[in-house]
Amino acid sequence: MNLLSIGASYRTADVAVLERLVIPESSVPELLQRLVAQPYVGEAVVVSTCNRVEVYAAVSGFHGGLGDICNVLSEHSGIPATELAGHLYVHYGEAAVRHSFRVSSGLDSMVVGEAQILGQLRDAYHAATEVDSAGRLLHELMQQTLRVGKRAHAETGIDKAGQSVVTAALDVAAEHLGGDLTGRSALIIGAGAMGSLSVATLTRTGVGPLRITNRSHERADRLAEAYGAVAVPFARLDEVLREVDIVVCATASTEPVLTRERLERVGKDLIVLDLAVPRDVAPDAVGLPGLTVVDIDSLANSRRTNPAAAETAAVEQIVTGEVENFLGWLRGAEIAPTVAALRTRAEEVVSAEMRKLMSRRPEFTEEQRADVSRTLHRVVQQLLHSPTVRVRQLAAEPGGDQYAALLRELFDLDVPLATQADAVPEIGGKA
Protein backbone atom coordinates (compact mmCIF):
# COMPACT_ATOMS: atom_id res chain seq x y z
CA MET A 1 0.00 0.00 0.00
CA ASN A 2 1.11 3.55 -0.71
CA LEU A 3 -0.30 6.96 0.13
CA LEU A 4 -2.39 8.96 -2.31
CA SER A 5 -4.06 12.31 -1.69
CA ILE A 6 -6.56 13.79 -4.11
CA GLY A 7 -8.49 17.00 -3.65
CA ALA A 8 -9.80 20.34 -4.80
CA SER A 9 -9.32 23.61 -2.98
CA TYR A 10 -9.66 27.35 -3.45
CA ARG A 11 -6.44 27.10 -5.47
CA THR A 12 -7.91 24.81 -8.15
CA ALA A 13 -11.68 25.31 -8.03
CA ASP A 14 -14.12 28.17 -7.59
CA VAL A 15 -16.88 28.10 -5.00
CA ALA A 16 -19.40 26.81 -7.57
CA VAL A 17 -17.36 23.62 -7.92
CA LEU A 18 -16.50 23.36 -4.22
CA GLU A 19 -20.13 23.58 -3.15
CA ARG A 20 -20.93 20.60 -5.39
CA LEU A 21 -17.98 18.66 -3.99
CA VAL A 22 -18.50 19.54 -0.31
CA ILE A 23 -19.42 16.58 1.85
CA PRO A 24 -21.91 17.25 4.65
CA GLU A 25 -20.86 15.83 8.00
CA SER A 26 -23.77 13.40 7.97
CA SER A 27 -22.65 12.00 4.60
CA VAL A 28 -18.99 11.40 5.50
CA PRO A 29 -19.42 7.86 6.96
CA GLU A 30 -21.26 6.62 3.88
CA LEU A 31 -18.68 8.17 1.53
CA LEU A 32 -15.82 6.61 3.48
CA GLN A 33 -17.45 3.20 3.21
CA ARG A 34 -17.89 3.67 -0.53
CA LEU A 35 -14.21 4.58 -0.87
CA VAL A 36 -12.83 1.56 0.99
CA ALA A 37 -15.18 -0.69 -0.99
CA GLN A 38 -13.28 0.21 -4.17
CA PRO A 39 -10.84 -2.39 -5.56
CA TYR A 40 -7.65 -0.33 -5.17
CA VAL A 41 -8.50 1.60 -1.98
CA GLY A 42 -7.63 -0.02 1.35
CA GLU A 43 -7.95 2.96 3.71
CA ALA A 44 -9.50 6.42 3.48
CA VAL A 45 -9.87 9.72 5.35
CA VAL A 46 -12.02 12.57 3.99
CA VAL A 47 -11.47 16.26 4.80
CA SER A 48 -14.24 18.67 3.82
CA THR A 49 -14.06 22.37 4.74
CA CYS A 50 -15.29 25.64 3.32
CA ASN A 51 -12.35 25.87 0.93
CA ARG A 52 -11.10 22.30 0.38
CA VAL A 53 -12.31 18.75 -0.15
CA GLU A 54 -9.60 16.10 0.08
CA VAL A 55 -9.28 12.33 0.23
CA TYR A 56 -6.26 10.73 1.84
CA ALA A 57 -6.04 7.05 0.94
CA ALA A 58 -3.86 3.97 1.15
CA VAL A 59 -3.97 2.39 -2.29
CA SER A 60 -2.52 -0.74 -3.87
CA GLY A 61 -1.76 1.02 -7.17
CA PHE A 62 -1.52 4.62 -8.31
CA HIS A 63 -3.67 4.59 -11.44
CA GLY A 64 -6.24 2.21 -10.00
CA GLY A 65 -6.54 4.21 -6.77
CA LEU A 66 -6.76 7.48 -8.67
CA GLY A 67 -9.55 6.15 -10.85
CA ASP A 68 -11.47 4.67 -7.91
CA ILE A 69 -11.39 7.89 -5.87
CA CYS A 70 -12.21 10.15 -8.83
CA ASN A 71 -15.22 7.98 -9.68
CA VAL A 72 -16.55 8.17 -6.12
CA LEU A 73 -16.10 11.96 -6.01
CA SER A 74 -17.73 12.27 -9.43
CA GLU A 75 -20.76 10.24 -8.35
CA HIS A 76 -21.04 12.23 -5.12
CA SER A 77 -20.81 15.65 -6.75
CA GLY A 78 -22.57 14.94 -10.02
CA ILE A 79 -19.58 16.42 -11.87
CA PRO A 80 -18.42 14.21 -14.77
CA ALA A 81 -15.04 12.65 -14.06
CA THR A 82 -13.47 14.26 -17.13
CA GLU A 83 -14.60 17.71 -15.97
CA LEU A 84 -13.72 17.07 -12.33
CA ALA A 85 -10.15 16.07 -13.24
CA GLY A 86 -9.41 19.65 -14.26
CA HIS A 87 -10.06 20.84 -10.70
CA LEU A 88 -8.13 18.18 -8.79
CA TYR A 89 -4.60 18.07 -7.44
CA VAL A 90 -2.94 14.70 -6.89
CA HIS A 91 -0.03 13.76 -4.61
CA TYR A 92 1.47 10.29 -4.33
CA GLY A 93 3.96 8.71 -1.93
CA GLU A 94 6.35 11.24 -0.42
CA ALA A 95 4.44 14.13 -2.01
CA ALA A 96 1.24 13.01 -0.24
CA VAL A 97 3.02 13.03 3.12
CA ARG A 98 4.46 16.50 2.47
CA HIS A 99 1.07 17.83 1.38
CA SER A 100 -0.61 16.49 4.51
CA PHE A 101 1.99 18.13 6.78
CA ARG A 102 1.79 21.45 4.89
CA VAL A 103 -1.99 21.43 5.23
CA SER A 104 -1.88 20.85 9.00
CA SER A 105 0.77 23.56 9.40
CA GLY A 106 -1.44 26.12 7.66
CA LEU A 107 0.92 26.56 4.71
CA ASP A 108 -1.70 25.47 2.19
CA SER A 109 -4.57 27.45 3.72
CA MET A 110 -6.27 30.38 2.05
CA VAL A 111 -5.25 32.37 5.12
CA VAL A 112 -1.71 31.12 5.67
CA GLY A 113 -1.13 30.02 9.25
CA GLU A 114 -4.78 29.72 10.27
CA ALA A 115 -5.19 27.17 13.06
CA GLN A 116 -8.76 26.01 12.31
CA ILE A 117 -7.49 23.37 9.89
CA LEU A 118 -6.07 21.37 12.81
CA GLY A 119 -9.53 20.91 14.29
CA GLN A 120 -10.94 20.05 10.88
CA LEU A 121 -8.25 17.40 10.32
CA ARG A 122 -8.88 16.01 13.80
CA ASP A 123 -12.60 15.72 13.04
CA ALA A 124 -11.85 13.99 9.72
CA TYR A 125 -9.56 11.48 11.42
CA HIS A 126 -12.16 10.83 14.12
CA ALA A 127 -14.84 10.20 11.49
CA ALA A 128 -12.60 7.68 9.71
CA THR A 129 -11.83 5.96 13.00
CA GLU A 130 -15.54 5.68 13.78
CA VAL A 131 -16.24 3.70 10.59
CA ASP A 132 -12.89 1.87 10.67
CA SER A 133 -11.76 3.23 7.29
CA ALA A 134 -8.30 4.19 8.57
CA GLY A 135 -5.79 1.36 8.88
CA ARG A 136 -2.20 1.29 10.08
CA LEU A 137 -0.87 3.59 7.35
CA LEU A 138 -3.47 6.35 7.70
CA HIS A 139 -3.54 6.09 11.49
CA GLU A 140 0.17 6.86 11.50
CA LEU A 141 -0.13 9.58 8.84
CA MET A 142 -2.99 11.41 10.57
CA GLN A 143 -1.43 11.19 14.02
CA GLN A 144 1.84 12.57 12.70
CA THR A 145 0.00 15.18 10.61
CA LEU A 146 -1.74 16.54 13.71
CA ARG A 147 1.51 16.48 15.69
CA VAL A 148 3.42 18.32 12.95
CA GLY A 149 0.67 20.95 12.72
CA LYS A 150 0.79 21.56 16.47
CA ARG A 151 4.57 21.78 16.38
CA ALA A 152 4.55 24.29 13.53
CA HIS A 153 2.10 26.55 15.35
CA ALA A 154 3.92 26.20 18.67
CA GLU A 155 7.48 26.75 17.43
CA THR A 156 7.00 29.48 14.82
CA GLY A 157 5.10 32.73 14.52
CA ILE A 158 3.06 31.64 11.53
CA ASP A 159 -0.24 32.14 13.37
CA LYS A 160 0.78 34.95 15.74
CA ALA A 161 -1.66 37.39 14.15
CA GLY A 162 -4.61 35.07 14.81
CA GLN A 163 -5.51 35.14 11.14
CA SER A 164 -8.46 33.14 9.85
CA VAL A 165 -10.95 33.20 7.01
CA VAL A 166 -13.10 35.42 9.25
CA THR A 167 -10.37 38.02 9.83
CA ALA A 168 -9.60 38.07 6.10
CA ALA A 169 -13.29 38.65 5.32
CA LEU A 170 -13.49 41.40 7.93
CA ASP A 171 -10.49 43.13 6.35
CA VAL A 172 -12.42 43.28 3.09
CA ALA A 173 -15.52 44.54 4.91
CA ALA A 174 -13.46 47.24 6.62
CA GLU A 175 -12.35 48.57 3.24
CA HIS A 176 -15.99 49.08 2.28
CA LEU A 177 -16.79 50.78 5.60
CA GLY A 178 -14.00 53.33 5.82
CA GLY A 179 -11.41 51.10 7.47
CA ASP A 180 -12.92 50.85 10.97
CA LEU A 181 -15.52 48.29 12.06
CA THR A 182 -15.67 49.35 15.69
CA GLY A 183 -19.27 49.78 16.78
CA ARG A 184 -20.71 48.36 13.55
CA SER A 185 -23.70 46.15 14.23
CA ALA A 186 -23.50 42.59 12.97
CA LEU A 187 -25.56 39.45 12.59
CA ILE A 188 -24.07 35.96 12.53
CA ILE A 189 -26.22 33.33 10.82
CA GLY A 190 -25.19 29.88 12.00
CA ALA A 191 -23.98 28.63 15.39
CA GLY A 192 -21.62 25.85 14.33
CA ALA A 193 -17.81 25.87 14.35
CA MET A 194 -17.45 28.68 11.79
CA GLY A 195 -20.24 30.67 13.45
CA SER A 196 -18.50 30.35 16.80
CA LEU A 197 -15.20 31.49 15.29
CA SER A 198 -17.01 34.43 13.69
CA VAL A 199 -18.55 35.55 16.98
CA ALA A 200 -15.20 35.29 18.78
CA THR A 201 -13.39 37.21 16.04
CA LEU A 202 -15.98 39.97 15.75
CA THR A 203 -16.04 40.41 19.51
CA ARG A 204 -12.25 40.67 19.63
CA THR A 205 -12.14 43.27 16.85
CA GLY A 206 -14.73 45.53 18.45
CA VAL A 207 -17.64 44.84 16.10
CA GLY A 208 -20.96 45.12 17.87
CA PRO A 209 -23.62 44.93 19.01
CA LEU A 210 -23.74 41.31 17.86
CA ARG A 211 -26.79 39.23 17.17
CA ILE A 212 -26.85 35.51 16.43
CA THR A 213 -29.52 33.45 14.75
CA ASN A 214 -29.71 29.76 13.98
CA ARG A 215 -32.45 27.32 13.01
CA SER A 216 -31.83 25.67 16.38
CA HIS A 217 -32.42 28.56 18.77
CA GLU A 218 -30.84 26.68 21.68
CA ARG A 219 -27.44 26.63 19.97
CA ALA A 220 -27.69 30.33 19.14
CA ASP A 221 -28.67 31.08 22.72
CA ARG A 222 -25.68 29.18 24.16
CA LEU A 223 -23.26 30.91 21.79
CA ALA A 224 -24.73 34.34 22.48
CA GLU A 225 -24.51 33.82 26.23
CA ALA A 226 -20.83 32.87 25.97
CA TYR A 227 -19.93 36.14 24.21
CA GLY A 228 -22.44 38.61 25.55
CA ALA A 229 -24.33 38.73 22.25
CA VAL A 230 -28.08 38.53 21.65
CA ALA A 231 -29.76 35.44 20.22
CA VAL A 232 -32.71 36.15 17.93
CA PRO A 233 -35.22 33.63 16.58
CA PHE A 234 -34.62 32.54 13.00
CA ALA A 235 -38.16 33.63 12.20
CA ARG A 236 -37.04 37.25 12.77
CA LEU A 237 -34.26 37.04 10.18
CA ASP A 238 -35.89 39.47 7.71
CA GLU A 239 -36.41 42.04 10.45
CA VAL A 240 -32.85 41.84 11.80
CA LEU A 241 -31.30 42.09 8.32
CA ARG A 242 -32.72 45.60 8.08
CA GLU A 243 -31.09 46.60 11.38
CA VAL A 244 -27.43 45.58 10.95
CA ASP A 245 -24.41 46.73 8.93
CA ILE A 246 -22.64 43.39 8.52
CA VAL A 247 -23.93 39.83 8.13
CA VAL A 248 -21.71 36.77 8.50
CA CYS A 249 -23.19 33.61 6.99
CA ALA A 250 -21.79 30.31 8.23
CA THR A 251 -24.52 27.68 8.05
CA ALA A 252 -24.46 24.10 6.81
CA SER A 253 -27.59 24.60 4.74
CA THR A 254 -27.69 22.93 1.33
CA GLU A 255 -29.91 25.74 0.01
CA PRO A 256 -29.31 29.52 0.08
CA VAL A 257 -30.47 31.11 3.32
CA LEU A 258 -30.33 34.64 1.89
CA THR A 259 -32.42 34.49 -1.27
CA ARG A 260 -32.72 37.31 -3.78
CA GLU A 261 -36.27 38.02 -2.60
CA ARG A 262 -35.18 38.23 1.04
CA LEU A 263 -32.27 40.56 0.29
CA GLU A 264 -34.38 42.78 -1.95
CA ARG A 265 -36.57 43.50 1.08
CA VAL A 266 -33.64 44.81 3.16
CA GLY A 267 -33.83 48.26 1.61
CA LYS A 268 -30.42 49.49 2.82
CA ASP A 269 -26.69 49.03 2.24
CA LEU A 270 -25.52 45.69 3.60
CA ILE A 271 -22.22 43.79 3.62
CA VAL A 272 -22.57 40.01 3.67
CA LEU A 273 -19.57 37.82 4.44
CA ASP A 274 -20.62 34.46 3.00
CA LEU A 275 -18.23 31.91 4.52
CA ALA A 276 -20.44 28.91 3.85
CA VAL A 277 -19.97 26.20 1.24
CA PRO A 278 -22.51 25.61 -0.24
CA ARG A 279 -23.13 29.36 -0.40
CA ASP A 280 -25.70 30.94 1.89
CA VAL A 281 -26.25 33.85 -0.50
CA ALA A 282 -28.18 32.94 -3.65
CA PRO A 283 -25.98 33.57 -6.71
CA ASP A 284 -28.73 35.60 -8.40
CA ALA A 285 -28.73 38.04 -5.47
CA VAL A 286 -25.15 39.15 -6.10
CA GLY A 287 -25.17 42.56 -7.73
CA LEU A 288 -28.31 43.89 -6.03
CA PRO A 289 -28.06 47.64 -5.35
CA GLY A 290 -26.49 48.31 -1.96
CA LEU A 291 -25.45 44.70 -1.43
CA THR A 292 -21.77 43.76 -1.09
CA VAL A 293 -21.01 40.02 -0.94
CA VAL A 294 -17.62 38.71 0.15
CA ASP A 295 -17.37 34.95 -0.45
CA ILE A 296 -14.67 32.28 -0.68
CA ASP A 297 -13.88 33.21 -4.29
CA SER A 298 -13.28 36.88 -3.53
CA LEU A 299 -11.17 35.99 -0.49
CA ALA A 300 -9.05 33.62 -2.54
CA ASN A 301 -8.48 36.35 -5.10
CA SER A 302 -7.55 38.96 -2.49
CA ARG A 303 -4.63 36.91 -1.03
CA ARG A 304 -4.00 39.56 1.61
CA THR A 305 -3.02 37.27 4.44
CA ASN A 306 0.50 35.98 3.85
CA PRO A 307 2.82 36.00 6.91
CA ALA A 308 6.47 36.98 6.78
CA ALA A 309 8.75 34.89 4.60
CA ALA A 310 10.92 33.98 7.60
CA GLU A 311 7.94 32.47 9.38
CA THR A 312 6.85 30.34 6.43
CA ALA A 313 10.46 29.28 5.83
CA ALA A 314 10.70 28.06 9.44
CA VAL A 315 7.55 25.99 9.00
CA GLU A 316 8.76 24.59 5.67
CA GLN A 317 11.95 23.48 7.42
CA ILE A 318 9.93 21.70 10.10
CA VAL A 319 7.80 20.02 7.44
CA THR A 320 10.86 18.84 5.48
CA GLY A 321 12.42 17.24 8.56
CA GLU A 322 9.16 15.60 9.61
CA VAL A 323 8.55 14.21 6.13
CA GLU A 324 11.93 12.47 6.25
CA ASN A 325 11.12 11.09 9.71
CA PHE A 326 7.81 9.70 8.45
CA LEU A 327 9.44 8.17 5.39
CA GLY A 328 11.97 6.51 7.70
CA TRP A 329 9.13 5.00 9.71
CA LEU A 330 7.43 3.94 6.50
CA ARG A 331 10.53 2.23 5.15
CA GLY A 332 10.98 0.45 8.47
CA ALA A 333 7.36 -0.67 8.42
CA GLU A 334 7.73 -1.94 4.87
CA ILE A 335 10.66 -4.20 5.77
CA ALA A 336 8.86 -5.71 8.78
CA PRO A 337 7.01 -8.38 6.70
CA THR A 338 10.32 -9.39 5.11
CA VAL A 339 12.02 -9.72 8.51
CA ALA A 340 9.04 -11.69 9.80
CA ALA A 341 9.21 -13.98 6.77
CA LEU A 342 12.94 -14.54 7.37
CA ARG A 343 12.32 -15.53 11.00
CA THR A 344 9.48 -17.82 9.92
CA ARG A 345 11.76 -19.47 7.38
CA ALA A 346 14.38 -20.01 10.10
CA GLU A 347 11.78 -21.58 12.41
CA GLU A 348 10.65 -23.87 9.61
CA VAL A 349 14.24 -25.00 8.98
CA VAL A 350 14.78 -25.69 12.70
CA SER A 351 11.53 -27.64 12.94
CA ALA A 352 12.35 -29.70 9.86
CA GLU A 353 15.83 -30.54 11.15
CA MET A 354 14.40 -31.47 14.56
CA ARG A 355 11.98 -33.91 12.95
CA LYS A 356 14.83 -35.54 11.03
CA LEU A 357 16.99 -35.77 14.15
CA MET A 358 14.24 -37.28 16.27
CA SER A 359 13.44 -39.86 13.61
CA ARG A 360 17.09 -40.97 13.70
CA ARG A 361 17.39 -40.89 17.51
CA PRO A 362 14.17 -42.38 18.87
CA GLU A 363 15.92 -43.13 22.18
CA PHE A 364 15.91 -39.42 23.15
CA THR A 365 13.68 -38.67 26.11
CA GLU A 366 11.14 -35.81 25.97
CA GLU A 367 13.44 -33.74 28.18
CA GLN A 368 16.38 -34.32 25.84
CA ARG A 369 14.27 -33.46 22.79
CA ALA A 370 13.17 -30.20 24.47
CA ASP A 371 16.79 -29.31 25.35
CA VAL A 372 17.97 -29.84 21.78
CA SER A 373 15.03 -27.86 20.37
CA ARG A 374 15.62 -24.92 22.71
CA THR A 375 19.33 -24.89 21.88
CA LEU A 376 18.72 -24.84 18.13
CA HIS A 377 16.18 -22.05 18.45
CA ARG A 378 18.53 -19.97 20.61
CA VAL A 379 21.36 -20.37 18.12
CA VAL A 380 19.15 -19.29 15.22
CA GLN A 381 17.72 -16.31 17.15
CA GLN A 382 21.19 -15.13 18.13
CA LEU A 383 22.42 -15.44 14.56
CA LEU A 384 19.46 -13.48 13.23
CA HIS A 385 19.29 -10.80 15.93
CA SER A 386 22.08 -8.47 14.83
CA PRO A 387 21.36 -8.71 11.08
CA THR A 388 17.63 -8.06 11.50
CA VAL A 389 18.18 -5.12 13.85
CA ARG A 390 20.73 -3.66 11.46
CA VAL A 391 18.57 -4.17 8.38
CA ARG A 392 15.71 -2.32 10.09
CA GLN A 393 18.07 0.59 10.74
CA LEU A 394 19.35 0.58 7.17
CA ALA A 395 15.82 0.31 5.78
CA ALA A 396 14.82 3.51 7.58
CA GLU A 397 17.43 5.47 5.63
CA PRO A 398 16.92 6.87 2.11
CA GLY A 399 17.13 4.06 -0.42
CA GLY A 400 16.46 1.53 2.33
CA ASP A 401 13.88 -0.37 0.31
CA GLN A 402 16.76 -2.15 -1.46
CA TYR A 403 17.60 -4.07 1.71
CA ALA A 404 14.17 -5.70 1.90
CA ALA A 405 14.47 -6.70 -1.75
CA LEU A 406 17.95 -8.10 -1.12
CA LEU A 407 16.74 -10.22 1.80
CA ARG A 408 13.88 -11.60 -0.24
CA GLU A 409 16.26 -12.49 -3.06
CA LEU A 410 18.98 -14.05 -0.87
CA PHE A 411 16.64 -16.24 1.14
CA ASP A 412 14.01 -16.80 -1.57
CA LEU A 413 11.29 -15.39 0.70
CA ASP A 414 7.70 -15.27 -0.43
CA VAL A 415 6.43 -11.96 0.97
CA PRO A 416 3.04 -10.63 -0.22
CA LEU A 417 3.56 -7.16 -1.64
CA ALA A 418 1.14 -4.44 -2.72
CA THR A 419 0.60 -4.18 -6.44
CA GLN A 420 3.41 -2.06 -7.87
CA ALA A 421 2.79 -2.51 -11.59
CA ASP A 422 1.31 0.90 -12.12
CA ALA A 423 2.97 2.75 -9.25
CA VAL A 424 4.98 5.90 -9.89
CA PRO A 425 7.59 7.36 -7.54
CA GLU A 426 5.92 10.72 -7.05
CA ILE A 427 3.07 12.60 -8.60
CA GLY A 428 2.33 16.23 -7.83
CA GLY A 429 -0.63 17.86 -9.51
CA LYS A 430 -1.83 21.42 -9.25
CA ALA A 431 -1.27 22.83 -5.81
UniProtKB/TrEMBL annotation:
EC number annotated for this UniProt entry: 1.2.1.70
CDD domains, A to Z: NAD_bind_Glutamyl_tRNA_reduct
Location of the Glutamyl-tRNA reductase N-terminal domain: 6-156
Gene Ontology MF: a single term: glutamyl-tRNA reductase activity
Pfam families for this protein: GlutR_dimer, GlutR_N, Shikimate_DH
Binding-site list for NADP(+): 190-195
Domain Quinate/shikimate 5-dehydrogenase/glutamyl-tRNA reductase: 174-300
Gene3D superfamilies linked: Glutamyl-tRNA reductase, N-terminal domain, NAD(P)-binding Rossmann-like Domain
Domain (Tetrapyrrole biosynthesis glutamyl-tRNA reductase dimerisation): residue spans on this chain: 315-413
Catalytic function, reaction form: (S)-4-amino-5-oxopentanoate + tRNA(Glu) + NADP(+) = L-glutamyl-tRNA(Glu) + NADPH + H(+)
Site (Important for activity): 99
Pathway linked to the protein: Porphyrin-containing compound metabolism; protoporphyrin-IX biosynthesis; 5-aminolevulinate from L-glutamyl-tRNA(Glu): step 1/2
Active site: 50 (nucleophile)
Sequence positions that bind substrate: 49-52, 109, 114-116, 120
InterPro entries in the cross-refs: 4pyrrol_synth_GluRdtase (IPR000343), 4pyrrol_synth_GluRdtase_dimer (IPR015896), 4pyrrol_synth_GluRdtase_N (IPR015895), GluRdtase_dimer_dom_sf (IPR036453), GluRdtase_N_sf (IPR036343), NAD(P)-bd_dom_sf (IPR036291), Shikm_DH/Glu-tRNA_Rdtase (IPR006151)
NADP as UniProt keyword: yes
Keywords (A to Z) from UniProt: NADP, Oxidoreductase, Porphyrin biosynthesis
PANTHER family attached to this UniProt entry: GLUTAMYL-TRNA REDUCTASE (PTHR43013:SF1)
Subunit structure: Homodimer.
Family affiliation: Belongs to the glutamyl-tRNA reductase family.
Miscellaneous section: During catalysis, the active site Cys acts as a nucleophile attacking the alpha-carbonyl group of tRNA-bound glutamate with the formation of a thioester intermediate between enzyme and glutamate, and the concomitant release of tRNA(Glu). The thioester intermediate is finally reduced by direct hydride transfer from NADPH, to form the product GSA.
Domains: entry comment: Possesses an unusual extended V-shaped dimeric structure with each monomer consisting of three distinct domains arranged along a curved 'spinal' alpha-helix. The N-terminal catalytic domain specifically recognizes the glutamate moiety of the substrate. The second domain is the NADPH-binding domain, and the third C-terminal domain is responsible for dimerization.
Role: Catalyzes the NADPH-dependent reduction of glutamyl-tRNA(Glu) to glutamate 1-semialdehyde (GSA).
The name this protein goes by in its record: Glutamyl-tRNA reductase
Name of the encoding gene: hemA
